[in-house]
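hi support,

uploading two proteins for the ticket. first:
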Amino acid sequence: MIVGILNYTAANSIAQFDTRPVSVAERRDWFGQFAASGPYRLVVARRGDQVVGYACSQRYRDHEAFRATVEVSIALEVSSRGQGVGTALYRALFDSLAVEPSVHVALAGIALPNDASVALHRKFGFTEVGTFREYAFKNGQYISSVWMQRMCHPAPPPRQ
């Protein structure tokens, strides 16, 4: 279950910034943003009837100026890490976004240190654009995040 993965990650790492467990009801609006088409997608990996991970694209900011920008996120159940599940999830997510002309750029914020996540994002064409240093506080420590971006549908060249 996705909420279980989120809650485990929140309790056991800095990769997610929630500081307390959340319920499915508390995540209902978050789940409600996703659709089978459009820029906001949720892709789920299963092993049998067990959810082992997810990847999603969601609204980056509420401002209309960011309507062509999505923020992507990925999370895996601990025993599924390092087995190609993340690669398969991102491949499916970016394949679905490739047919969405409304998505110009994808962003990802990665709490540091997280070499595996940085490497996964690089594998999918993300490049580093900057680091927010010590901008969050969790589990008694300040957390920095590297921000990365991937152009999905670059702007057409200007007409001559």
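and the second one:
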Amino acid sequence: MGMNEPSCWLCARPLGRRIEYHHPRPKSRGGRETVPVHPICHRTIHARFSNLSLARSPHAETMRKDAEIARFLVWIASKPPDFSAPTRRRKDRV
């Protein structure tokens, strides 16, 4: 990956053609900053964490320590930037 090549805030892989922007602190909780993420990473964040949880700890490093996110990151690491797959909505979001 080149020095100026943008990467995903969550998984750190290079971004592809499709880029979404995530509010680390939800807009509903006063967040203004956005960060670039893959669509699959964005869906995974929101499937795992509630807006309340994101507001309490809006840092990628904290999210990466979550066991479910850590498994996702290992799985997605070898996928191409524009890879897509269905994301299950979790009933037990944290």
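thanks. also noticed: The two ends are 33 Å apart (CA to CA).
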